[in-house]
Design a protein that fits this description.
alpha+beta, two-stranded antiparallel ribbon, 6 strands
Length: about 120
């Protein structure tokens, strides 16, 4: 029986606000321990902690919008590597930060845990 077509995540949920100290390099860290998405092969839920660390330039991400954006992945069927890279690409394009790291730490599945990290600049 084929799996249903996965729902898209909501990139439009992300909002920004002006960086209050654009002349200063400072670090913003988010830990999102309740991230879920769906395995594209089995349809079973995948659970992860998403860690976001960035140095803003002109824009910062608004926290509630980030929460809603991450929640929108709950019905998305995608591999861990794609989910982490999508989050990274969306934040990089939206914020154009001086530095950005996104790490997905996925819970055990079949006896294996997965961690995927993306960095800018490389």
């Amino acid at each position: 029986m084929p799996l249903p077509e996965p729902a898209p995540y909501d990139r439009a949920a992300l909002e920004t606000f002006p960086n209050p100290e654009p002349a200063r390099d400072y670090e913003i860290e988010f830990e999102c321990p309740e991230f879920t998405c769906v395995c594209p092969k089995t349809g079973q839920p995948d659970f992860a902690t998403i860690l976001i660390d960035y140095v803003p330039d002109q824009l910062c991400v608004e926290l509630k919008s980030l929460k809603l954006y991450l929640w929108s992945f709950r019905n998305v069927g995608a591999f861990h590597e794609k989910v982490t890279n999508d989050i990274f690409s969306d934040l990089l394009g939206l914020l154009q930060p001086r530095r950005l790291s996104v790490r997905g730490e996925f819970k055990v599945r079949g006896g294996i845990t997965t961690s995927v990290s993306c960095h800018h600049p490389v």
